[in-house]
Amino acid sequence: MKPAVGLIGLGLMGNPMGKNLLKAGFPLTVWNRSSAKADDLVREGAKLAATPREAAARADVLITMVSDPPAFEAVLWGEKGALEGLRAGSVLVDSSTVSPNLARRAAVACAERGVDFLDAPVTGGTWGAEKGELVFMVGGKSEVLERVKPVLAAMGQRFFHLGRNGAGQTVKLAMNLILALEVDALAEALALVTAAGVPGERLVEVLQSSMARAAVLDVKAPLILKREFPPSFPLRLMQKDLKLALELAREQGVPLPAGAAAFETYSAVKNAANDDPDYAAVARFWKRS
């Protein structure tokens, strides 16, 4: 018998993660703040819970994939929250991106109920979620990771155990700091060369044959060149993650001057946006006339 899985949060990442769990044969119960987002998963065999508590009560392994720390706090500790429904011996896996401190707070709350907790944020974007090729960055007990690995393997292909609770979130924030800086630097460089009269495509052509080449730039450069930004990872979430990284840096006494500058740039674009674009839309900071 495969363990029963609960999934809370059915956005750009959660929905394809749920589909892969169903394809792998796991009994699945889902909950989302707007229940319409669960319709396609229910048609494919998932059960719809009325509350986070109900989703948790039905699950041996509960996965949360929500947008930010307040959303995670709401589904865990809010009215009819998941914490009330978690059974002793079950596991909560949070794949949202939140602060390490919040991850540790959740771990303590779970332990008081006899529940194991892993902070396990992911990287790989929507394409990784759709293909079941996500990479999990995990904080918590290694033996708990081994217990839930068959579930995670339906959604991902690599699992890094990084240390105690909070370590997964720490590495995820550092990862997103790097990604944000890389795409910000590409947008800045493209603004420079185009202002000087050189087509941006020529910079990208050289970049792809140089040591500055990075996989994320292969994906984001075409979006910036076309000025089209369908959200694979929304800019509002990258801006949120930069804020969390800067908060962690202040706690640790580590200055992040490049990160602070990038946060200001992403914030300016987010505040001016009338849509919900991909984070490659940071290129809008350098508006073309």
How does this structure look, described?
The chain has 289 residues and is of the alpha/beta class. Helices cover 51% and strands 13% of the residues. The protein folds into two domains: 5-163, NAD(P)-binding Rossmann-like Domain (Rossmann fold, 3-Layer(aba) Sandwich), CATH 3.40.50; 170-285, Orthogonal Bundle (N-(1-d-carboxylethyl)-l-norvaline Dehydrogenase, domain 2). The strands form two sheets. It has a six-stranded parallel β-sheet with strand order 3-2-1-4-5-6, with helices on both faces. Strands 7-8-9 form a three-stranded mixed β-sheet. The longest helix is centred in the middle third of the chain and has 29 residues, at 167-195. 45% of the residues are buried.
**Secondary-structure element order, N to C:** EHEHEHEHHEHEEHEHEHHHHH
The domain tally reads: 2
Q: State the helicity in percent bands.
A: 40-55%
Can you summarize the main beta sheet? 6 strands, parallel
CATH-defined architecture of the largest domain: 3-Layer(aba) Sandwich
> How much β-strand is present in the residues?
5-15%
Query: What is the terminal separation in angstroms?
Result: 61 Å
CATH domain class name of the largest domain? Alpha Beta
Indicate the mean pLDDT: 97
- Rg measurement, Å: 20 Å
Provide a short characterization of the protein structure.
The protein has 289 residues and is an alpha/beta fold. Helices cover 51% and strands 13% of the residues. It has two domains: 159 residues, Rossmann fold; 116 residues, N-(1-d-carboxylethyl)-l-norvaline Dehydrogenase, domain 2 (Orthogonal Bundle), CATH 1.10.1040.10.
